[in-house]
C-alpha cells in the first residue's frame, strides 16, 4: 500500500523550446505491514528509523492458542486418515470370517442334500421309497443349493463392502481436515510478522502486551531506495508526456547533479478546477498529475523535499 508523506500544489513552466519544467514534492513509497490474525503482541523487534531487511522479523504475537488448535487439527486428521484407510479396505476381518463360516456351512448342507437326493433317487427307481420322499429330497436339494449360492455372493460382497459413496464421504472428511490443519499452520506462521520489503521502519504502532485485530497495521516500512515525485502539467502540455519517458529531477541540495526518473503514471482526469469550466481561457488552467519514479540507492533524495522536473 502506498501512503503519501506530503503533497503540495506545484507549478509548471516552459523554460526553453521543447522543455517543460514542473515542480513537485518527493514522496516515499510506504508499505503498511498488517497482522493477518488477532492476538496479543508478545515482542517487538525493531525501533523507529531502523534499517529493515526483507523477511526480517518485526513483531511476534502470542501463539499458544493457535499452536493448540494446530495440534488438535493434526490429531483429528490422523484419526480421519485411519478411518479412510479402513473404509477403502472394506469390511472388518471378523465380518469376513463370519461370512466364510456361513459359506462353509451352506456348502456342507448342500453336499449332504445332494448325497441324500442321489440315495433317494436310486431307491425310488427300485420302488423302495414313495414319490413323496423323492420330492422332499429334491426340494431340500434346491433350497440348500440356493442357500449355498447366496452365501458365496454374500462373501464376495462383504469383501467389497465399502460402497463408493462411503469412500467418497470418508475422503471428503479427510480432505476437509487436511485443509483445516493447513489453515492452522498458516495462523501459527502468521504469529511472526515480517517485513515484505527492504527499507526503514517509519512508525511503531503497537507495544508488547497490546492486542491487534486482523488487518491492523503494526508498523510502516518505507523503501527509500526508490522514491516518487508528483508534479502537475497543464492540459495544453500533457500530451507531450509519455509513459516510460525519462526525465531529469533536481533538488536544491544537489544543484550540480540531476537524477534520472521515469514517468510511471499520467492522470486521466484534470484537477484543481471545477468540472463545469467550459471557456477556452479557463480550460488551459486544468492540471494533470504526473508521477515519476526515481532510483535512490545512495538515499540522497529525502521524502518531503521539493524537486524540479524537466521533461524534454
UniProtKB/TrEMBL annotation:
Residue runs in coiled coils: 54-161
Location(s) in or outside the cell: Cell envelope
GO cellular component labels: cell envelope
Keyword field: Coiled coil
Database matches in InterPro entries: Beta-barrel_YknX (IPR058636), HH_YbhG-like (IPR059052), UPF0194_transport (IPR050465)
YknX-like beta-barrel domain boundaries: 233-309
Limits of the YbhG-like alpha-helical hairpin domain: 61-184
Primary localisation category: other
Protein name: Uncharacterized protein
Lineage: Bacteria, Candidatus Fischeribacteriota
Amino acid at each position: 500500500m502506498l501512503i503519501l508523506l506530503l503533497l503540495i500544489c506545484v507549478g509548471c513552466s516552459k523554460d526553453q523550446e521543447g522543455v517543460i519544467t514542473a515542480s513537485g514534492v518527493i514522496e516515499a513509497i510506504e508499505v503498511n505491514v498488517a497482522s493477518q490474525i488477532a492476538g496479543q503482541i508478545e515482542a517487538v523487534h525493531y525501533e523507529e528509523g531502523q534499517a529493515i531487511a526483507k523477511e526480517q522479523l518485526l513483531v511476534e504475537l502470542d501463539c499458544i492458542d493457535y499452536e493448540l488448535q494446530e495440534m488438535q487439527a493434526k490429531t483429528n486428521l490422523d484419526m480421519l486418515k485411519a478411518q479412510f484407510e479402513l473404509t477403502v479396505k472394506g469390511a472388518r476381518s471378523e465380518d469376513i470370517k463370519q461370512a466364510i463360516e456361513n459359506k462353509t456351512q451352506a456348502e456342507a448342507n448342500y453336499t449332504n442334500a445332494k448325497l441324500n437326493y442321489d440315495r433317494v433317487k436310486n431307491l425310488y427307481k427300485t420302488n423302495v421309497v414313495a414319490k413323496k420322499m423323492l420330492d422332499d429330497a429334491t426340494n431340500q436339494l434346491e433350497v440348500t443349493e440356493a442357500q449355498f449360492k447366496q452365501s458365496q455372493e454374500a462373501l464376495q460382497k462383504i469383501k467389497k463392502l465399502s460402497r463408493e459413496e462411503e469412500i467418497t464421504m470418508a475422503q471428503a472428511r479427510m480432505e476437509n481436515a487436511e485443509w483445516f490443519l493447513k489453515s492452522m499452520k498458516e495462523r501459527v506462521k502468521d504469529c511472526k510478522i515480517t517485513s515484505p520489503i527492504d527499507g526503514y521502519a517509519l512508525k511503531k504502532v503497537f507495544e508488547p502486551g497490546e492486542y491487534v485485530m486482523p488487518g491492523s497495521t503494526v508498523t510502516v516500512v518505507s523503501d527509500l531506495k526508490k522514491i516518487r515525485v508528483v508534479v502537475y502539467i497543464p492540459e495544453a502540455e500533457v500530451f507531450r508526456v509519455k509513459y516510460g519517458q525519462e526525465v531529469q529531477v533536481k533538488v536544491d541540495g544537489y544543484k550540480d547533479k540531476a537524477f534520472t526518473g521515469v514517468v510511471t503514471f499520467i492522470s486521466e482526469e484534470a484537477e484543481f478546477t471545477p468540472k463545469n469550466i467550459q471557456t477556452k481561457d479557463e480550460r488551459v488552467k486544468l492540471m494533470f498529475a504526473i508521477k515519476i519514479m526515481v532510483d535512490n540507492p545512495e538515499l540522497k533524495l529525502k521524502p518531503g523535499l521539493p524537486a524540479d522536473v524537466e521533461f524534454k
